[in-house]
Amino acid sequence: QFPFGRRLPCDIYWHGVSFHDNDIFSGQVNKFPGMTEMVRKITLSRAVRTMQDLFPLEYNFYPRSWILPEEFPLFVDEVRMMKDSDPSWKPTFIVKPDGGCQGDGIYLIKDPSDIRLVGSIQSRPAVVQEYICKPLLVDKLKFDIRLYVLLKSLEPLEIYIAKDGLSRFCTEPYQEPTLKNLHQVFMHLTNYSLNIHSGNFIHSDNVNTGSKRTFSSILCRLSSRGADVKKLWSDIISLVIKTIIAMTPELKVYYQSDIPAGKPGPTCFQILGFDILLMKNLKPMLLEVNANPSMRIEHEQELSPGVFENVPSPVDEEVKVAVIRDTLRLVDPQKKKR
Predict the structure, then answer these.
(1) Angle, alpha carbons 147-148-151 (nearest 5°)
(2) Beta-strand (E) ranges in 20-122?
(3) Which CATH fold would you assign to the domain 12-37+134-332?
(4) Which residues make up the CATH 3.30.470 domain(s) of the chain?
């Protein structure tokens, strides 16, 4: 680690947050210029929606979404039209602040008039999405999947998907959203950083139980129930590739402005966290993409009020150590020399 900046040229530079270093002329950097901006909720929604307009059947893995405040009137009109054409449609929507992370500022609404427009939306733009009401449940709980994807290069486009990921569970049994339970975040939101504060959160000492499990343990359960796990994986791979294809044109613009062709510069790679929700019919839906997924392999445990200690987390270790190890193997600068 170089807390006060670099001293020596390196093969691999591993930055904490984002790519900002004009002094790197060679080697490989674990961040792409512009990636943090690209996966923000609004930018990602725009990129995927552009593709939805062109290829609606190929990009049907992303919930209908509107950008606030600019598309608020459009949101109101479209919801009214859809309700008029199908009076039985009782939608729920989820509002996510553009720059929010770890579940910060997310809330559910039943009607466009419930959006908290006062001040906050003007100063803090957001995306509003149709809420996925028929999620696949395990042990009566809603969960999402965090998959780790290595974008190894943009030209040629090279993508690797880790074979295992994390399944992060809600801590209250799921019920379809109603006006009464909309505010129950432990039932509707799968964010680990929210659910860890629930009294029902279970720190697991193996990969098959608790509030955070391996994705492979869920696949085993589905397989034993007769689900077509091969098709599920192929749908997930397709979702990942198509999402990255949607982001690629803008990423290339960022890349070329930071590292112009013909000028010496590093090459880039990046581990992305894809958050995916499985519907009851096993269709994967993209929730969001994280440019800086946590690589911690321990969790905080409260010993007494306000006193925490870090405890190893076997589930995180199982998945993340493999992700880092295989990433370093794939970008191994020595390979070319051997």
Answers:
(1) 135
(2) 28-29, 65-68, 93-97, 107-109
(3) D-amino Acid Aminotransferase; Chain A, domain 1 (3.30.470)
(4) 12-37+134-332
Q: Residues of CATH 3.30.1490 domain(s) within the chain?
A: 64-131
DSSP state for residue 310 in the 8-state scheme: E
pLDDT, tens digit (0-9, with 9 covering 90-100), for 110-159: 988 888 755 555 567 899 999 998 999 999 999 999 999 999 999 899 99
pTM of structure:
0.91
Given a contact cutoff of 8 angstroms between Cβ atoms, the answer to whether 139 and 210 are in contact is no
Which contiguous run of DSSP H or E holds residue 127? Answer: strand 126-130
CA 39-287-330 angle, to 5 degrees, is 60
Q: Dump pLDDT digits (tens) for 229-255.
A: 999 999 999 999 999 999 999 999 998
DSSP 114: G
Structure tokens that stand for 29 in this block = 């950097």
Residue 67 near residue 125 (C-beta atoms within 8 A): yes
**Fold that domain 64-131 belongs to in CATH:** Dna Ligase; domain 1 (3.30.1490)
